[in-house]
Amino acid sequence: MRLVTAAKSLLLKRPILVIFDVTRLCNQRCRFCNIWRGESRDMAAGEIVRQAEFLKKLGIGYVFLQGGEPTLRPDLPEIVDAFIGREIKPTVITNGILLKDGLARKLAEKRCNVAISLDTLDAASFKLIRGVDSLDLVMANLENIAGIKPRRGNWAVTTTVTNLSTLEEIKRLEALAGRLGLMYAIRPYVHVAGAAGRRDDCLLYRDIERVVEIFAYMRDRARKNNYLASLVYEGHIDWLRGKPMPGCDALARSLVMSPQGLFSPCLEFTSESVPWEEIRGRRAAWLERCRICNREHPCFYNCAREIGILWRNKWRIALTLPLILGQLARHRNFF
User: pLDDT for 266-280, tens place per residue?
Assistant: First the structure.
């Protein structure tokens, strides 16, 4: 049913994904993030249930539960259930520090995806990037998660590739994820106007082709077991090389919901979050702002951009459908 609803929304150019900042509080101080610097007025679980009902009516099929750090909320399992109960597939995006046995087991029992951020295996680099000395905690939690079976959702390790990243370390992180029975994905370091991504000279790319080599490696690997992801990595490579980007799909494919239940088209407009009625009433003006933003400083956040890539490659996907279905059967549903 969720896939049917999502397909209908795609055809009608309606959002299928909501990025929900469950809280803006965080237990890390990442150099590439500005979200934790603001205050956070979080909805209670009961209000989130009402919002989930509303999002279901909008045709939303997927939600990213992120922050800040969503595991700081002790009612996170209830929040996950609020969306699952409305046929909206949740993905918890966490730094893994608080993903200890009790919480991990609760999430593993639910049809919920979990993405655990891990950018390096070097303790000094981890502290430099994430602002806290907690690599050992994350690694201990990952080792514990490997022993939790079954996990009803897809669990993954995700890496933000910065200037400090090397292909050799990406391969080590990929091998770690494989040993633990987790999927593995990488994302580029993004900074725009500063509402979400923060510019940091230490992390800025200096040798683009060296970074492209990392994404090309992941693209080639994905073609063998996750063709859909390989299309996204192709988009990453084009973006890194400064090629003209297709139109941003913010608002047309995805929305951002603030901790208070207000909305904006994109992470870069969260300081202007408003009630849904104002988004709907000024849709044309918001879409124009997204077009201008995409022209002046195109980004590659993990939201509407990826949905747009897959949608624009729909005929290519159709031609490779037997391959994709085989990959889904062997490696589970990627979404």
Answer: 888 888 999 999 999
